[in-house]
Structure formats: structure tokens, C-alpha cells
């Protein structure tokens, strides 16, 4: 399968099904024939996190002092000690699009970009795309 791109879930897309969004994307094509290629296009929701969902995973890690003895107790690192080096969000929820047929890469990418601008108010990644 060929990866077309991904974009963020926004207010427009968060309450819709994958099938509903796929229909919207295909209807954004300049070619009406693309709507008939629905079986060759895959649109899926993707949820990725660091193992703790929306929670900061470092809040579940305990540390020992460098000079700790065998009887020393572990401690949790205060958030202010690492917040500058840590992401603001610990999960990502997005829409990904793939095609099964190589000849559909360019028209589906064009339709996906148009859908993102017109309806979803989002950006497609990767920004630069080579067919």
C-alpha cells in the first residue's frame, strides 16, 4: 500500500466514522471517477501514545540518587525538572490515508489536501509529497 498522508482530528472529523470521512475526501476530488475507487482507498483513525494514554509517563517512573545506599528510597522527579525537554501532549489522534493502487496516489493526495483545507481546517503531513 502507498501512504498518502496524515492529518489531525479536528472538531469536524472527531464525531464521524472512517467511512463518512472517506466519502468526504473522495468527493473533494476534481475527478468524479475517484468516488468509484472507494475499495482501493483506506482511511483509518490512528491513536498513538507513550503507554499511559494522556498521562505523562515520567510520572510513573521512580529514580534513585546517584549516591544512594541499599536502603535508600526512590523518588519521583518533579515535573519542573524536565518540563522543558518533555512534549506538551503525550498522545496523538489522527487520520491516515493509504491507497492500494499506485495510479491513485496523486489524485487521492490532491483530494485529501483539498478536504483538509476545506472541511477539516488542518494540514496534511508530510508537507512535501513526491509521486
UniProtKB/TrEMBL annotation:
What InterPro entries does this protein map onto?
Answer: dGTPase-like (IPR050135)
Protein's UniProt name = Uncharacterized protein
Q: Which GO terms describe its molecular function?
A: dGTPase activity
Q: Which Gene3D superfamilies match?
A: 3.30.70.2760
Organism (species): Phytophthora fragariae
The alphabetized list of GO BP terms reads: dGTP catabolic process
One GO cellular component assignment for this chain's record is:
nucleus
